[in-house]
Amino acid sequence: MKKLMFTTIASAAALGLAACGSEDVENTPIDDVDELVDADVNEVGYPVGGELNPDQQTAFDTMDRQAASDEYDMNYDAIRTERVANADLSTGDAMSGSGSMDSSGAMSGAGASDTGGDAMSGSGSMTSASSGSGMSDMPSRSAMDFGWLDRNDDGKLSVAEYAIWAVPVDPTDPAPNDAKKPYMTSEEINQAGETFFYFDQDGSTYLSEQEFAMARNSAMTPS
Fold first, then answer.
1. 209 Cβ partners below 8 Å, 6+ apart?
2. Between the CA of residue 84 and those of 81, 124, 131, 216, what are the distances in Å?
3. Which of 50, 66, 169, 174 is a good FRET partner for 159, with 20 to 30 A between their CA atoms?
4. What is the pTM for the complete model shown?
5. Rounded Cα gap, residues 184 and 160, in angstroms
């Protein structure tokens, strides 16, 4: 009889603990939303504008598309040069620490080679490696803030500077050697211009930091 009572009590206790455990799981606060939300939800999308008012429409219609295209190409080339140079510096820093020098001055370790200087042919080979490695010439769009896009540091964004972020253009697709000017098509220039002038609230034909923030906020949508 005592054995039966003990078994019954033990079973009841086990059920009670199981119920408490289930309740604790359901009521446990979630500190990290990323555990439940796909990381892509917070990625930056593309700007969403609206119907242009008459003044905005006039500014869009009279936009100097050739000048915007030329400025975009110039900015793109400068960005590509910067990124290749930074990749070369990173590669050089990594390689400089991979070997060591003995008392005779000979290289030993991971950087050693029987072919001597030919193995380390200089920055030209590293440039080829970095530019041909599939690295995008543009950083991720989420990393493009107002200060980075403002290529001439005048405190405002032109259509061409804005287009770097606003238009899905990457001349390295399908391969870096296929990149040819002009990098933007007429349709892509118009695509950038339509949302640019929509967010140009003061009609200055430039975007201030606040106006760009409005464009960026319009792009913060689930992907």
1. 146, 155
2. 5, 11, 6, 27
3. 174
4. 0.61
5. 10
